[in-house]
């Protein structure tokens, strides 16, 4: 339950019934092909829920540097609109830079322009619909706290996830939450790209390090291929850290959308062999639901370690859950010779 609420607490759009909108929000926008392009957002919420339409125009684009702290000059045709009808003077505070923690985009947004979230160092999550088709360069530059994309779309539907994860080379998770129900979670590990110059010949050799790049290719067009994603796990076990591998396995087992029996067995075997490591982040965030899954796979020694970790962290509920799930020891029986 904690894992689901952790996602939905961020997913403001779903929590408010699919039509939620900040009651105090000002928007600088301009008309663009197909609808409206948001240029700047003003208000007091660090987690704005952007409007589906502005003055009858559907919101289809997020403009360059929209949430960046420092913006370039605005176009001459820019207009101001607010939820409550007040003018620009009532909205002096831009939702930008380090103030931004999360943004819920309207389902119809098709394009995110260059550097839309540039230097948003405290941005933790971005929620998008299934319409996203285009993302610009430097989209999430210096967004060091960004750790998940929330998709209001079915896991087997076309989405902009491939373009979003391609814009982030660091660790990043993705959660599919169509209509508010968590249906699938996946994790993309970090990867690095290098250009090595052969000085005399002025030839550059392009190299990639980390299994995160392989995972980011597991798409058929714009649809995530879960079988291909799961098939990458054995190779990832060669080079990825135990912590990241546990997260990949746990996310897939907790939300087993399109999970084949063979892959389920591989993930389960890995978590059984690394149960204490898998439990560590669950203990830190008090995730009872996921911990129960790990405990089903853990042996007695791993359970003892997990119980100790729960106790040391002050989580008595987790310790009780861990110890309560142990098999009762057989009581010794005595015969006449023992006496």
Describe this structure in words.
There is one protein chain. By secondary structure, the chain is α/β, with parallel strands linked by helices. Helix 9 packs parallel to helix 11 (300-312). The chain has twelve helices and 16 strands. The protein has helices spanning 2-10, 12-15, 161-166, 212-215, 226-231, 233-239, 242-254, 261-273, 275-284, 288-297, 300-312, 316-324, and strands at residues 25-32, 35-43, 53-54, 57-62, 79-82, 102-104, 111-112, 125-128, 134-135, 148-151, 172-176, 184-188, 192-198, 203-209, 219-220, 223-224. The strands form four sheets. Strands 1, 2, 3, 4, 5, 7 and 9 form a seven-stranded mixed beta sheet that branches. Strands 6-8-10-11-12 form a five-stranded mixed beta sheet. Strands 13-14 form a two-stranded antiparallel ribbon. The model is unreliable at 1-6, 8-20, 326-332 and 334-339 (pLDDT under 50). The chain starts with a helix and ends in a 15-residue tail after the last helix.
């Amino acid at each position: 339950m904690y894992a689901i609420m952790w996602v939905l607490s961020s997913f403001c759009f779903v929590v408010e019934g699919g039509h939620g909108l900040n009651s105090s929000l000002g928007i600088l926008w301009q008309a663009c092909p197909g609808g409206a392009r948001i240029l700047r957002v003003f208000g007091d919420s660090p987690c704005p829920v952007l409007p589906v339409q502005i003055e009858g125009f559907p919101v289809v684009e997020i403009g360059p540097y929209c949430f960046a702290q420092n913006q370039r000059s605005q176009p001459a045709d820019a207009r101001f609109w607010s939820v409550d009808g007040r003018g620009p003077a009532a909205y002096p505070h831009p939702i930008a830079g380090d103030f931004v923690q999360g943004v819920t985009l309207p389902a119809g947004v098709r394009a995110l322009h260059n550097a839309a979230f540039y230097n948003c160092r405290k941005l933790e999550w971005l929620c998008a619909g299934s319409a996203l088709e285009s993302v610009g360069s430097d989209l999430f530059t210096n967004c060091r706290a960004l750790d998940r994309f929330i998709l209001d779309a079915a896991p087997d539907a076309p989405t902009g996830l491939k373009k979003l994860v391609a814009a982030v080379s660091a660790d990043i998770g993705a959660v599919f939450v169509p209509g508010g129900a968590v249906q699938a979670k996946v994790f993309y590990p970090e990867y690095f790209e290098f250009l090595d110059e052969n000085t005399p010949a002025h030839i550059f050799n392009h190299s990639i390090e980390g299994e995160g790049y392989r995972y980011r290719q597991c798409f058929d067009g714009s649809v995530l291929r879960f079988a291909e994603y799961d098939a990458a796990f054995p190779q990832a076990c060669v080079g990825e850290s135990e912590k990241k591998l546990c997260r990949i396995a746990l996310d897939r087992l907790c939300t087993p959308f399109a999970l084949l029996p063979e892959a389920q067995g591989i993930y389960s075997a890995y978590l059984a062999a690394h149960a204490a490591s898998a439990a560590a982040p669950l203990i830190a965030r008090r995730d009872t639901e996921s911990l129960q899954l790990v405990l089903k796979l853990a042996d007695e020694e791993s359970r003892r370690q997990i119980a100790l970790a729960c106790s040391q962290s002050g989580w008595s509920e987790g310790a009780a859950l861990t110890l309560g799930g142990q098999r009762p020891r057989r009581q010794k029986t005595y015969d006449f010779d023992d006496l």
